[in-house]
Amino acid sequence: MSAPKQIALRVNGSEHQLLLSPDAPLLYALRNDLGLNGPKYGCGLGECGACTVLVDGRAARACILPVGGLGQREITTLEGLGDLAAPDPVQQAFIECQGAQCGYCLNGMIMTVRALLNRKPEADEADIRRELRGNLCRCGTHLEILASARRAVELEGQRRAARASAAAPSPASTGCATADAARAPVPETATTATVDTVLAGPLIRG
C-alpha cells in the first residue's frame, strides 16, 4: 500500500478527514475508523455482497473500493438509510417480512434493493432477482428475501405517492407473501448459492 495521507470522505451526509493509504479499501475505513458496522467483511473479493454500500446512490462493493478514488462522492451505509423511528422503506420491508436468519448478508441485500429502487422504483420480480443474483445468503433465506424486496417496492411506491399527493390512494398490498406456497427444503450444497440459483435452478427439491 502507498503511504498514508489525509483522505476526505463524505459518509451519510457528514464530512470526514482520515489518515489513510489511498489504496485502503473503503470497508476498512468505514468499520475501523468511523465505527460503521452495517457493511460486513465477507469475502474481500467483491463477490458476496455483504459489504455493499451506496456511492452516489448506486450499489458498490466496499471491500474492493479504494478510498483514494472516491473524492467528494456521497457514500451511504446501512446506518444512513434510516433509524428505528423512521426506517427506510427497504429496512421496514425486511423487518415486516422477517427477511433474515443470521443477518450477516442483510446489509448487502438491503443496500442492493435500495440501489435498485433508486433507479427503478417500480421494479418487478425479474428486476429484483437480477439485482440480487450477486448477493449470497448462506442460511438459505431466499424466499423471505424476495418477499421483503417485493414488499419494499410497495412501500417505496406508497412513500412516493404520499409525497406527491397526501390524498393519493395507496396501492393494494400483497404483504409479505412469498412466491411459493411453502418453503422447499434446500440441500446443504446450496448454502453458498445466490438467490437465482436457489429459486430458479435445480437446488430446490420437492
Q: What are the defining features of this structure?
A:
206 residues; alpha+beta; Ubiquitin-like (UB roll); DNA polymerase, domain 1; 7 helices; globular; disordered C terminus; oxidoreductase
Structure description:
With 206 residues, this protein is of the alpha+beta class. It contains seven helices and five strands, in the order ββαβββαααααα. The chain has two domains: 5-80, Beta-grasp domain (Ubiquitin-like (UB roll)), CATH 3.10.20; 83-200, DNA polymerase, domain 1. The chain is 34% helix and 12% strand. It has a five-stranded mixed β-sheet with strand order 2-1-5-3-4, with helices on both faces. A hairpin with a 2-residue loop joins β1 (5-11) and β2 (14-20). α3 crosses α6, α4 (106-119) packs across α5 and α4 (106-119) crosses α6. The longest helix has 23 residues, at 142-164. The chain is globular, with a radius of gyration of 18 Å.
